[in-house]
Amino acid sequence: MDPIEQQEPTAPTIYLTLPSTGEFFGVSTADVDPLVPGNWLLPAGAYTDEPPPAQEGYARVRKESGWEQVRDLRGVEYWDAEGQKFEIQNLGETVPAGASLAEPPPSRMALESAVLAERDQRLLTTSARIQVLNYAVELAMATEAEAAELERLKRYSVLLGRINVQPGFPDSVEWPNLESL
Predict the structure, then answer these.
(1) Cα separations (Å) of 38 from 8, 30, 100, 135?
(2) How far is CA 148 from its chain centroid?
(3) First and final CA of the chain: distance in angstroms?
(4) What is the mean pLDDT of residues 28-57?
(5) pLDDT at 59 over 90
(6) pTM attached to this predicted model
(7) In Å, what is the CA distance from 68 to each residue of 23, 28, 125?
(8) Which pLDDT belongs to residue 83?
(9) Long-range contacts, 88-93 (Cβ 8 Å, 24+)
(10) Cα separations (Å) of 149 from 32, 57, 157, 177?
(11) Helix H segments across the chain?
């Protein structure tokens, strides 16, 4: 056979890993060694043995002993016993004992604070409108519709101010409906 017709041997498939974690991230082919005929060059972190099939929730990692499946919960959020939120950052890290993947319900104090903040925001918006309508009434410039609206807004404000004395507060709050007043 003519040397020109000889086929170049097929480059071996190589499996690439990340230097920081050793986890598999891709497939390539080895380069021909220009100095040693028939030899192939492998870059650092490349291996010729194929990693195991992918499994959900695991990363394929190259260790000294070969390929291993390592639990991969990176990006998973959990809450510790005190209700503090954390996110798993590292390969192989697991949810600590006593922690939960379910977000805990807000504390009573946090829930009360959120409801009162909502009430205060509603009162602030309502109070601004009441002030303008009060000026119209005081200056004898209010229309009948404006006088009626002022009355409704004042009732609404009183009911908002009583949110914290409702039965079930802060777990269940029935917000007053301005349109039905």
Answers:
(1) 9, 12, 56, 95
(2) 47
(3) 101
(4) 94
(5) yes
(6) 0.57
(7) 9, 20, 60
(8) 83
(9) 91/21, 91/23, 91/59, 91/61
(10) 85, 59, 12, 13
(11) 108-138, 144-161
Is the confidence at residue 66, as pLDDT, over 80? yes
pLDDT at 6 over 90: no
* Look-up of token digits 């920081």: 20
Write down the number of H helices and E strands in the chain.
Answer: 2, 9
On the CB side of 99, how many CA atoms lie within 13 Å of its CA?
A: 15
- Report the pLDDT averaged over residues 55-75: 96
Report the distance separating Cα 140 and Cα 130, nearest Å: 15
What is the C-alpha to C-alpha distance for residues 157 and 149, in angstroms, rounded to an integer? 12
What are the boundaries of each domain within the chain?
Answer: 3-71, 73-104, 108-180
Name the DSSP letter for residue 90.
Answer: S
- Mean pLDDT, to the nearest integer, of 82-99? 91
Give the 3-state secondary structure of residue 132. Answer: helix
Write the CB contacts of 174 (distance below 8 Å, at least 6 apart in sequence).
Answer: 166
